Amino acid sequence: MTIQKPSIPKGTRDFSPAEMVRRNYIFDTIRDVFQRYGYLPIETPAMENLTTLLGKYGEEGDKLLFRILNSGDYLGNVAKDELQQIDAFALSSKITEKGLRYDLTVPFARYVVQYRNDLTFPFKRYQIQPVWRADRPQKGRYREFFQCDVDVIGSDSLLNEAELIQMISDVFEHLGIRISIKLNNRKILAGIAGLIGQATRLTDITVAIDKLEKIGLEKVNEELAAKGISQMAIDKLQPFLLLEGSSSDKLASLSDSLKNSEIGQKGIEEMKTILRLAHDLIPETDVELDLTLARGLNYYTGAIIEVKAKNVAIGSICGGGRYDDLTGIFGMPGISGVGISFGADRIYDVMSELNLFPSANPASSQVMLVNFGEEEQSFCLKTIQQMRKAGINAEYYPDPVKMKKQMAYADKNKIPFVVLIGQEEIDSQMLSVKNMITGQQSKVSLKDFISELLHKS
Q1: With the CA atoms of 208, 210, 212 and 218 taken in that order, what torsion angle do they form, in degrees rounded to the nearest 10?
Q2: CB atoms closer than 10 angstroms to residue 173
Q3: Cβ within 8 Å of residue 334, ≥6 positions away
Q4: DSSP code of 142?
Q5: Can you give the pLDDT at residue 33?
Q6: What would be the CATH architecture of the domain defined by 17-46+102-353?
Q7: Which of the residues in the chain have pLDDT under 50?
């Protein structure tokens, strides 16, 4: 009988210790920047009620929700004729009430409304947790992945957008990734939709435009036509999608084209302010207006942001925008917010491809003590305890096996120092220390050895 090798679902991954050290480097870098700007951490459950999730991401987003079957006899309340109908979504509403979160923004809006009386506004939060999407797995796109979100809610000020752009620049400067930051504004897109006679079809237009880089202009136009957008409107849209020049040139052209659009003019003024602030704060960072940036999610209402890594073809590694009334769908209208999300998994892939991770030893332990047996055990345990209290990562090999096996363990795990303590070392109170990198061995007191390691770290 052949035993089937265990596996994991497509679009998910296991991470080795070495990979986790690198991932934690990314998380720690992002977290440090978030905290430096005064943002506070929260966490929300992996699952939410479907009433919280459905209808917030558009029709396509709803299809990508992972739904959780009700516990127990989940078919008990479903009539036989309903089971025979070929309507998966209608049936799922009867047998599922919860789903895995699609992003961290909608759960955050739910959190704000639920705990509104306990929060001080403007409320600045960050959140680093996994999300799930029933998408087709491919390079840079997973079904389970981490997002690192930072949002401020309860403030209309465009200073928030500028600060988020500055945070983006700080994070990627620390990680060593060269980036370009693309900006647009949903109000400008709404103005364009009105100008081409499709004011009520903004969502259809933005969902299609959002695929421009993936499928190309011709396919986008085909999708617009398939959604019922007239050919005349599609033709009028083309000059905006093909508009070139500097950000100021584009804004000048837009200002003329949308001179009769109140919402379009408001979006233009917002973009001018954000671009000016961004230039003042981070003049060295590549920030530009991109009218093809749409971000198809329904809840964006103002500025939208997307970040691409230069020299790597992997898609967006960070994005977000302004949402003026996301909390309104949960009974708390009129609360504006803006936020961005860093895609930790894509950032990892970019850093791996560009070899940007620090070359520091990924090992958890800096020191390993060799196990010679019970006679030396008491002294070794007291020694390693002093190392750990001093803040040094150290481990004691658990079994008194052959020296060759213990040294091979230290070598394979890239532990830089091995300490050998026999009766001679106990009598002299001097440790025998082998540098696993150079191969040199020396005698040193515990105090001096600890001091040396702390100095190196």
Answers
A1: 10
A2: 16
A3: 325, 328
A4: -
A5: 97
A6: 2-Layer Sandwich (3.30)
A7: none
Q: Which two tokens stand for residue 417?
A: 């120092």
How many other C-beta atoms can be found within 10 angstroms of the C-beta atom of residue 148? 24
Q: Describe the chain by its helix, strand, coil percentages, rounded to 5.
A: 45, 20, 35
Residues with Cβ within 8 Å of 447's Cβ and at least 6 positions away in sequence, in order, are none
Distance CA 273, CA 154 (A): 20
The tokens describing 78, both together, are 């479903």
Q: Where are the domains of the chain?
A: 17-46+102-353, 367-456
Q: Give the β-pairing of 337-343 and 144-153.
A: antiparallel
Cα 202 to Cα 227: distance, rounded to the nearest angstrom: 12
The 3-state DSSP class for residue 113 equals helix
> Do 169 and 153 form a contact (C-beta atoms < 8 A)?
no
Structure confidence by residue, pLDDT tens digits, 245-255? 999 999 999 99
Give helix 212-226 / helix 202-209 axis angle, nearest 10°.
150
Selection from 334, 326, 335 nearest residue 298 by Cα: 326
What is the rounded CA–CA span in Å between residue 103 and residue 99? 12
Cβ neighbors of 74 (< 8 A, separation 6 or more) are 95, 96
Report residue 266: phi and psi, to 5°: -65, -40
Whose CA is closest to 49, among 103, 98, 11? 98
Q: What is the DSSP string of 337-353?
A: EEEEEEEHHHHHHHHHH
Closest CA to 63 of 300, 228, 296: 296
- Asked if residue 346 lies in contact with residue 140, where contact means CB atoms within 8 angstroms, the answer is yes
Domain 367-456 has what CATH class?
alpha beta
Task: Mention every residue, 6+ apart, whose C-beta is less than 8 A from residue 172.
Answer: 178, 179, 307, 318
User: What are the residues facing 153 on neighbouring strands?
Assistant: 123, 337
Task: Report pLDDT for 127.
Answer: 98
Looking at residue 305, its amino acid is: I
DSSP at 44:
-
pLDDT single digits (tens) 38-74: 999 999 999 999 999 988 887 788 889 999 887 766 6
Other Cβ atoms within 10 Å of 274 Cβ, number: 25
